[in-house]
């Protein structure tokens, strides 16, 4: 029996729907189906890229190791009888769609232009035991479909089963291409294993972009062959081992590295004090210790910075590169005699010099094929005309998106005021329909002044999953209802459905080794309908 | 060279003083001293209790495994030359003071009446290589002194050393006997290893009392031989394995178990629905799902509860037992026809029945040698006269302590409004000198609606250390200055000293496997003087 999810049926489904983000189209049944002992993935095309082959092997491994009991009070006991007679699924066939372009590695596809990437897929799991089918135009689409397939399965004493057959996702694809997560590795140290674990978590909720805020005033943990002194002098001992591995491939996710400048650069003073103003500044230059930012009126400092940016950006496959630009401290430059002299000599105001600096650094990046990303201050607080390929991260307030859009600058949402479980965030609030094309997506941020490996996962998960769904699923749930209105209103079934799904996601992340936190007591995780916050 | 810590010298010492809580008297030098290869603990008395022997073995193990580098920018490199010529310490002698009573196990001493316990110790570490001396009147005092000794040591490439010799703590003892930590294991599940780890952390900051909020409405994870059905019906699958181990000895720390009643008892309805009112209640009985509390006007329910309390409390060595009493929901009883009938039949008001319930449960506990502890509502919100052995936990607001003291009830501080890094908390605020004897101490609390093993440590540590020092060290720092005034004021050296010490403690807890979080960037941990919040 097939039916389309609709409000009256959510009540039946909420305990068994474990998909996150929820596909944009979805048809599910209620037939039990189990994985055959010899279950395997099959390909209907030759020569798959190595990273796709690895992703398939990983998906198979997770099917065997998740061992997740269904989150209902009896943990699935009532399915035991039905499972004895249930059909078995022997295989999932991965197929390329007719007219699909030649298959490329996932790691290549994630470096395509944002709007050129194709993450769409169709997944059909019949209830009669015949093979399931996953079809896409790309490796990336097959990878997204594998992720959805992996969320269907529960364990009952060694039997791996779903309660949702037959199951069809037709041409699911993300509402926004940029679905990001930001991690600051300068304020406190993170071992490579934490970064890899975070990338895993991202892939399991179909996030697309890792924004690595790799350096800041507190440390410079990034080893650059041409400028090894930066890391040698401004990293802590813990970081010694990680520098070597910085450029190891971070597969399957788009990596955007950020070298924040000209502010947030005091760590450069440990190796190049000549380039840093107000390192020993006082009074109103204090933002967060240590003080100091690049002497932006100095030609030598600009040239040094251009060379550093080139050395870093040229080694990265991503088309985008983040140049920071937040929280520039003007009193610092007022206190710095060298900067004052250089401004006077060149006949420029500080704002002129900021504009020249941004133009020069961005043009250098463009010359090596990169598109610059900045924090919103570069658009809203300085008198600069950014070229219209630039992307701005709106972080100070969600209210600022409209002002950035008014300047015709493309936007990634990353607002502080919605950082915490922002499920009701509307990416198009205050954006006119003619400006919608400017919205590329959004991302979660973690600054690490008060965190480290000890609380990375507990802060990030399942919180970040919230924006993963906002920017994948977009404004409309698969039943056609408005996502934000359904949750913000008094629709108990819609709230129960989301709450149950995020509890289920948390359990699956935990089963895969991510220390995602409980967001309600276990009692409520088993019975979300009893624990709605009205 | 010997000197007493005073303000001008703190500047020299803040990077090297890693003691937490800081002893109430302290003299330190600046001579380097290293542990000899064959370093060992020695006893000058016979037949040590087994748990003291185990504690000594553990202390020795930590000396070998902490491997903590000193938290300064060069990580101790500048000590390398001096360490070549430094004297070596071959042993620490544990001695009983003249006139000390016969030695008893730590686990026995922690069950003594609060004010009868002797945790005092004297510790002398000479700088000339002769043996160090730890002297106390009790096993518990020796255990506290071992903890202080263990905080003196850093590692430099395999050399274990202190920078503080000669070092003398004279007759250190806690300002308050009750230095507690509270953990709720009903809202979400914790494995025994988490509880043991928490007890370890407590012992490393000299906390004395573990308040185990073991049951609540959401689950009843406590196995009681006489009432196995309670846990069988109201625990989650995860908890199955832990029930067996509930009564395994929790050594070295005073254990206070709480069976919260008559509220917070809905989980009893899974096995004994006849004793629970408003399990399916509606409207203003909703506090937190599931609903339901004990039918306090029912004689059968009271007798059942007395038997449960007896079964639990009689198996525990502690002199105290916590009977809860918080957040009693009166509309629940108004909705429950059985309770209304029973009140009418006995001619009692609800408040009368609450008073009778509390008298009966407390008197039963007294009859088996226990002293009752309650939440503050039992003192402030109900018309009950508690017997004057009762202890109240003041949790809703620190302002309520004075009202509880006015009723002549002993107090443990556990205020919500000071839960977060409460270093400036003053236990005697608004308490007259004639009431000071009522203040037994204070405790940190963790409710677990939104936590579990994933974030237990990150929420608890190093936060809980703050109250550990408030209640051990009391109002006066070893240099004679006022603790709260020194930190709340503009005394940069005092602030730097505390900040450096808590960073150091965090590093030591992390070295011992507790996932304590960074509270500032590593840059600041190495240079606390640059990162004071003014």
TrEMBL record, chains A, B:
InterPro entries given in the database record: Beta_hexosaminidase_sua/sub (IPR025705), GH (IPR017853), Glyco_hydro_20_cat (IPR015883), Hex-like_dom2 (IPR029018), HEX_eukaryotic_N (IPR029019)
Signal peptide: 1-18
Keyword Calcium: no
Catalytic activity from the UniProt record: Hydrolysis of terminal non-reducing N-acetyl-D-hexosamine residues in N-acetyl-beta-D-hexosaminides
Annotated EC: 3.2.1.52
Any one Gene Ontology molecular-function term assigned to this protein's record: beta-N-acetylhexosaminidase activity
Domain Glycoside hydrolase family 20 catalytic: 176-424, 425-474
Keywords: Glycoprotein, Glycosidase, Hydrolase, Isomerase, Signal
Domain Beta-hexosaminidase eukaryotic type N-terminal per the UniProt entry, residue ranges: 19-152
Family to which the UniProt record says this protein belongs: Belongs to the glycosyl hydrolase 20 family.
Name of the protein in its database record: Beta-hexosaminidase
Native organism: Marasmius tenuissimus
């Amino acid at each position: 029996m097939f039916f389309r999810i609709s409000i009256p049926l959510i009540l039946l489904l909420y305990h068994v729907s474990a998909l996150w983000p929820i596909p944009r189209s979805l048809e599910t049944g209620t037939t039990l189906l189990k994985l055959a002992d010899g279950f395997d993935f099959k390909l209907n095309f030759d020569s798959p890229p190595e990273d796709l082959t690895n992703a398939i092997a990983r998906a198979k491994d997770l099917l065997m190791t998740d061992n997740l009991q269904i989150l209902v009070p009896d943990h699935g006991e009532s399915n035991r009888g039905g499972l004895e007679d249930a059909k078995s699924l022997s295989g999932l066939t991965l197929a390329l769609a007719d007219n699909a372009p030649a298959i490329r590695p996932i790691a290549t596809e994630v470096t395509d232009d944002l709007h050129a990437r194709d993450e769409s897929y169709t997944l059909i799991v019949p209830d009669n035991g015949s093979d399931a089918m996953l079809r896409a135009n790309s490796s990336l689409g097959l990878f997204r479909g594998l992720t959805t397939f992996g969320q269907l399965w529960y364990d009952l004493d060694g039997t791996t089963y779903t309660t949702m057959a037959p199951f069809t996702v037709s041409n699911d694809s993300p509402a926004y291409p940029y679905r990001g997560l930001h991690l600051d590795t300068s304020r406190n140290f993170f071992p490579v294993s934490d970064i890899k674990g975070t990338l895993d978590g991202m892939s399991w909720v179909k996030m697309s972009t890792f924004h690595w805020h790799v350096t800041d005033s507190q440390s410079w943990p990034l080893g650059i062959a041409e400028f090894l002194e930066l890391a040698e002098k401004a990293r802590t001992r813990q970081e010694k081992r990680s520098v070597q591995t910085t450029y190891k491939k971070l597969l399957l996710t788009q990596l955007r590295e950020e070298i924040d400048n000209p502010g947030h650069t005091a760590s450069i003073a440990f190796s190049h004090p000549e380039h840093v103003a107000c390192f020993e500044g006082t009074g109103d230059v204090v933002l967060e210790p240590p003080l100091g930012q690049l002497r932006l009126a100095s030609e030598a400092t600009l040239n040094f910075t251009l060379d550093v940016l080139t050395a870093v950006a040229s080694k990265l496959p991503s088309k985008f590169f983040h140049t920071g630009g937040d929280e520039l401290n003007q009193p610092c430059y007022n206190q710095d005699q060298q900067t004052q002299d250089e401004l006077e000599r060149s006949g420029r105001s500080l704002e002129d010099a900021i504009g020249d600096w941004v133009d020069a650094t961005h043009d250098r990046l463009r010359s090596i094929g990169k598109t610059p990303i900045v924090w919103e201050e570069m658009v809203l607080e300085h008198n600069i005309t950014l070229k219209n390929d630039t992307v701005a991260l709106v972080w100070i307030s969600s209210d600022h998106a409209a002002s950035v859009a008014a300047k015709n600058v493309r936007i990634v949402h990353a607002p502080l005021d919605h950082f915490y479980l922002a499920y009701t965030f509307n990416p198009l609030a205050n954006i006119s329909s003619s400006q919608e094309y400017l919205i590329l997506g959004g991302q979660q941020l973690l600054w690490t002044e008060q965190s480290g490996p000890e609380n990375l996962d507990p802060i990030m998960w399942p919180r970040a999953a919230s924006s993963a769904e906002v920017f994948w699923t977009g404004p409309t749930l698969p039943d056609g209802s408005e996502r934000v209105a359904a949750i913000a209103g008094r629709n108990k079934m819609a709230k129960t459905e989301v709450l149950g799904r995020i509890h289920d996601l948390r359990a699956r992340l935990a089963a895969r080794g991510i220390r995602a936190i409980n967001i309600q007591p276990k009692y409520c995780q088993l019975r979300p309908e009893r624990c709605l916050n009205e």
